[in-house]
Amino acid sequence: MKLLLNSLAVFTLLGNISCKKDDVNAPTVTPVVIKPPSDTVSTTSVYGVILRTPEARFKDLKDYNFQENYVFLEGTDKLRMHYIDEGKTNKKVILLLHGNPAWVYNFRKIVPLLVAKGYRVIAPDLIGFGKSDKPANRAVITYENQVAWTESFVKKMNLTDINFHVQDWGGLIGLRVALQNKSLFSKIAISNTALMDGTNVTPYFRSWRTGSQTVATYGSVMEQATFKELSAEEEAAYDAPFPEERFKAAPREMPLKVPISPTDPEGIKNATFNQDFAKWNIPIVTIFSIKDDIFKGEELKIQQFVGAKGQPHSVVKDADHFIREDQPQVMTDLLSTFFK
Questions:
Q1: Is 169 inside a domain boundary?
Q2: Can you give the residue range of the structural domain that contains 176?
Q3: How many Cβ atoms sit within 10 Å of the Cβ of residue 306?
Q4: Which residues belong to the active site?
Q5: Those residues with Cβ within 8 angstroms of residue 238's Cβ, 6 or more apart along the chain or in another chain
Q6: CATH code, domain with 305
Q7: Phi/psi of residue 70, each to 5°?
Q8: CA 147 to CA 266: how far, in whole Å?
Q9: Are 259 and 197 in contact (CB under 8 A)?
Q10: Closest Cα to residue 126, out of 95, 157, 147, 155?
Q11: Which has the closest alpha carbon to 8: 261, 204, 293?
């Protein structure tokens, strides 16, 4: 039987260019220093070194055939954010936000299904993940910065009347963005996430928080956090954005940014956000998986919010933390019904 996410073991997995002259009369050639293809370095950036994963890492990924799109964020020394945008001729918009250590590959199963149901589906890679730019300095990867970067994306895309679906860190970030831009959002579907305020930290999350600092491959994490078995190709696809340790600043740092105490400054902020969220009359639905113990109990809190009263909340069977991997058709049906 497959190990569940609460097993700590999963989280402890462990050209020089030369120029020479053949002839003394040949013109002098100045050596050209070529940066490694994996790097895009901004020496003037307040974020320090910025990395981009080589495109070759994303070639021929299993079941991933989406056109890539990029937007440069405002006020961020031109950080580049990648996103998929499918069904562009459809009027109703669904915005998807992934979690850690996933990227938009996590949506590959549900995007075509949602487009077939008449939606335009937009999903960005959070900064530090997927094909988006990756600050190498872990100190740059803050909760506040992730919210600001994602908010900038929403505004640069000129999105309105947004049907919003969030999971894991997509919720910790995205729900703040929604609360700070209420007029842009129409409905919110929440899966295995919450605005954590440090009052309900499960032992399973504490295990992940510790193990996240040494885990060797993220494909293995995704495998252990799903009910269904991932193939070797799928695991490799989840590892594609992170060819070396220096690319892993975001997935390493984000678990440490989840508030684990009510006195954590971000926990205090989230407590305030939750007070506002509880009174907001936007339609809210929870779609949690039966086997996820990371956010266990948070759905019951959310269901007490004004906007969640009387909504068709669901608990999905045979699904673990990354519910979209396990039950894409069920998720698609629930989302399309709620967002119609």
A1: yes
A2: 34-339
A3: 12
A4: 168, 292, 321
A5: 101, 102, 103, 105, 218, 219, 221, 222, 230
A6: 3.40.50.1820
A7: -135, 150
A8: 12
A9: yes
A10: 147
A11: 204
Q: What are phi and psi of 267, to 5 degrees?
A: -65, -40
Measured in whole angstroms, the distance separating CA 215 from the mean position of its chain's CA atoms is: 18
Beta bridge pairs of residue 313: none
227 assigned to some structural domain: yes
Candidates 251, 250, 234, 241; CA nearest to 325 is 234
As for how many domains the chain has, the answer is 1
SS3 210: helix
How many other C-beta atoms lie within 10 A of the C-beta of residue 148?
A: 20
- Rounded-to-integer distance, Cα 328 and Cα 109, Å: 6
In a domain? residue 12? no
Residue 336, token pair as written in the block: 């399309």
**pLDDT tens per residue across all 340 residues of the chain:** 454 344 433 333 333 323 323 333 444 444 444 444 555 665 557 788 899 999 999 999 999 999 999 999 877 667 899 999 999 999 999 999 999 999 999 999 999 999 999 999 999 999 999 999 999 999 999 999 999 999 999 999 999 999 999 999 999 999 999 999 999 999 999 999 999 999 989 999 999 999 999 999 999 999 999 999 999 999 999 999 999 999 999 999 999 999 999 999 999 999 999 999 999 999 999 999 998 989 999 999 999 999 999 999 999 999 999 999 999 999 999 999 999 9
Q: Name the token pair of 111.
A: 């995007």
Contact 32, 229 (CB under 8 A): no
Establish whether the linkage from the previous residue to 243 is cis, with ω within 30° of 0. no
CB contact set of 173 (below 8 Å; sequence gap of 6+): 97, 126, 143, 146, 147, 150
Q: At what angle do helices 169-180 and 265-279 cross, to 10 degrees?
A: 60
Does 6 fall in a domain?
A: no
- Exposed e or buried b for every residue in 130-139, given b needs 16+ CB within 10 A? bbbbbbbeee
